[in-house]
User: Fold these one by one.
Assistant:
Number 1:
Amino acid sequence: MNRPATYLLLTLLLTACVIPSVRSEQSRLRSDSIPDGARRLMEAYPHDVVGYEDNMIIFADGERLIYNDGKSRTTEQMHIEQDVKDIFYQEYDTQRFPPDYGYDPGRYRSAAFFDKIYGRNEAEVISNLVKVAWCPSFGCDSLLFSRQAGAAEALKRVSDELEQHPELREWVIDAQTFCYRNVAGTNRRSPHSYGIAVDISVARSHYWRWSYPHASEYQRISYVNNISLDVVEIFEKHGFIWGGRWYHFDTMHFEYRPEINPPKYMQRVEPRKWETPSALRAIIENLNFDPWRSE
Ligand SMILES: [Zn+2]
């Protein structure tokens, strides 16, 4: 056999051996390489996020959203532009308390992701709002909350548990939820705009921008909190995060974020049949929320 023919034969043999092993490696990677964050989204939003493939998370309606855009950003940049992986920039660790410099777990949100889950504009979000009876035995008013992704269900569970603790009534009687607005001092939509955030006891709360009106994101500030940690514990048990765990503290603020703080136990209960309030627009216009602009 002449030399070129030998090379050709060797090449063919090598190709035959190598290509199948490369292929099997690729398929192994495909099934094993779902990033932890994407997996957590699939667990936390099982009816909405149904898969992951080729760096895209896949929604139940087939729509896809890029998971990792490959850009590295400062924390300040992450407030302006984010990809889905940025949601998981910091772990939500209740032991890391009070929060140290720059620790704001859950404060980085992917607008594209939350738009998709809860509504891309005010009309879409409002169409998903339901009335949740909020601690009725304490004499509280109902709250508007999103029925998407189990949010209203989680809030109802918080309410049910709070009612077992009459000593906590004073902290939760003046709760506020939906308000279509941006986060104070920013162009990004507040989680209150999605109907997934609750502010409690505003008068006794602390918000970093109120305490330090001239501070930048990078300035060192002093932590302060007066909110009862017993209340915090109940919210956190049901998939909410607390703004009091942030260096940029917002101690009145709770937000339904099961992907970074999964409910401590999954109750397999029949989802409630939510009542969609009539005259919703009138209810919303009567919410006097603006003086309390925060996260
Ligand atoms: Zn808030």
Number 2:
Amino acid sequence: MGSFSLLFFTVFLSLVAASKLYNNGVSAEESADTGLMMNYYTDSCPQAEDVIREQVKLLYKRHKNTAFSWLRNIFHDCAVQSCDASLLLDSTRRSLSEKETDRSFGLRNFRYLDTIKEAVERECPGVVSCADILVLSARDGIVALGGPYIPLKTGRRDGRRSRAEVLEEYLPDHNESISGVLAKFEAIGIDTPGVVALLGAHSVGRTHCVKLVHRLYPEVDPALNPDHVEHMLHKCPDPIPNPKAVQYVRNDRGTPMILDNNYYRNVMEGKGLLQVDHQLYEDKRTRFFVKKMAKSQDYFFKEFARAITILSENNPLTGTKGEIRAVCNVANKHHL
Ligand code: HEM
Ligand SMILES: *[C@@H]1O[C@H](CO)[C@@H](O)[C@H](O)[C@H]1NC(C)=O
């Protein structure tokens, strides 16, 4: 009996000790969670940001449209619950990728993001997250397009699963009301001028006819500028475009390759392609900021930089959460 209780006591003691050790282990790791910070990789991979910048530049030289993709990616990844590179995951037998949903229509150049990741892995294997590469490539892509340099923090880790099933709660559709758009962005801390500035990203790139034909057929949306209608009809001659055909209209015919405030002048002239673009000038809440950004590129850049920063810091995985993916299109457990 005595030896039994001694045994019991010993087991109890060692359990207490073990759990203390375990807790210490966890709290040590938790105290290492510094969250996002500037130059997170200074010690662990000092070349990381330079390698990414170089790759973005090289890719931009070969394929200018890669920069559009880096800019669009930060919206599609970060606005959906977390900047965790969930956007980059491929479909698995069990889950649909975000890339394959309707809201992601037209996203491109993912293989070149893999090119950047491979270059970073060659320097420092297993250190730099895909989420940080996604965010930093957006930062450097914005510069390539003539936009502002926006200092952004790093230290994000990669999510393990697709967020496809909640995507539509967070990403507005092309024809969403302004109230809906403002509410979605407000939920992640981006105010009205921030939203108006972010939509200025539609100063570059393209929109496929499938997203536009409802403004042209069966009858033309009277809000559209007649000169622009002519161009749009020329580019989108079929009421039901073949979704596989590469038929599209450039978002900003004036300066299609440059991130500038010409977008706002387009919107004011009835040349905004998407219904959300056009609505920005119709709605009282956003109209004032459209006019102000049309007048001042500085003001546009200032608000754009502020909004991109907030977007880039949306609910990141840090510390011991998530993982550092080995390749950006597959979570580690599937890859290894
Ligand atoms: C109300 C919010 C938004 C809606 C409904 C929306 C919708 C769209 C649609 C339908 C396209 C055309 C895709 C295609 O046909 O290929 C597009 C293109 C694009 N969007 Fe947005 N967008 C929104 C906000 C944003 C934001 C916040 C950014 C970045 C900060 C962004 C960046 C881009 C870029 C760069 C393109 C051109 C992509 C390319 O040419 O590859 N968009 N967007
Ligand atoms: C928006 O457009 C989609 C097609 O892209 C359509 O299914 C949906 O009904 C439209 N929504 C509104 C509010 O008009």
